[in-house]
Amino acid sequence: MAELEGPAKTHGVGVFLELRKRLQTGLLIVGKNVASSPADVVVTGGESSLHIKTPKGELSLTLPAGVTFEQGSCTPTPAGDFCEEELHFRLRICVTRSPDEEASDSAMETLRAKETYCFHCQGCMTRLLEDREFKRVLPLPNCNWNAIVDDWCCHPDPFANRKLLPRAEDCLLGDTFLLLAKDGGCAETLTEEVSLIGSKDGPDSKPCRRLALISCKSCSLVLGEAVAPETLKLYITQVVVEPAVGDRQPEASLNRSLFLQQTVAARLLGLSTSLSTFHFSIQTPDGKAFLLVWLLNGDSVTASVPESSLGCPDPHDPSPGAARALKLLYASPSDTGAQQRDIVTSWEANAIGHPVVLPLSVCEELLQVIDDSNSTLPASMCCMRSYEVAYLRL
Predict the structure, then answer these.
(1) Pick from 306, 328, 324: nearest CA to 377
(2) Which residues does residue 343 pair with via DSSP β-bridges, in sequence order?
(3) Which EC main class describes this enzyme (predicted)?
């Protein structure tokens, strides 16, 4: 593992757990404010649970199905530069594969032809479109496809100045969006507003262009764009796509942070597998890099419990659980630190990072979610190789 660097922020945690399912190992970190020596920490396992006893109190963590602690395997390990603040333990786990747990609920993975779907606003769960049965569900080419079109054709580019648009009963899948035709009810559920993106100020700026933003009429959440008079571009972070089953009513609005984490994490993992890359440049629609992301692993199971929750847990709160998570390194181009600027310059010079386009507001949300994740990590875990570390729930 790369040498860890000191954090730029104040990080404090009571108990932090990361399990690696493929390696069947785990790392447990306990703050010195919770336990002063390894002898003060006793770890045992139950059925899909992990019990941690400290002087501050007992903690029971629910583990995902198929993950169990190997009794007696928890042993102290050096904490390096952070030995004054943290106690580190290594442990082993047993894993039995659970196909249901690994299944993805991402809209990009579940859409199928000849099936009927309903589309809801993620913010307020208002139904946005009439139920759709698509005759064709097709992936769009890679976002850089037109850069290599000369390698395909022996005559002038036949796609020049032409958009790839869906037919009335098509659904076209981009990396982070769906393209589909409008229907008769759109005027009742959607609003359209023209906005200018880009700026002519600055040496690296791009010319302004007009963008027809589509929003939910009920809650004003920006859902996507109108890329043509009769074509919608809906971002997967903004809509909930579900099979239309009888008269089933949609569930209450999902927690925004959790929905955003799960949607983005599942999509990054899918793109990583299909494109054989671990580097992504999260960009706004004007092509400006907002966040640089380096995927580390998608088999983590994590839990972070603050010290305040150990002594007197609320009896009305459910037991904390360890959840599947995508571990990543990240850097923001807006960060003014010298090391971060070096990272950004290197990525730009070497064209590192598959572009992943999201609305500006979603990029800002995602950065906040990632920063919040980083702030819950122990000091020894929050930085690596000049990058910051975060986890996105799966």
Answers:
(1) 306
(2) none
(3) transferase
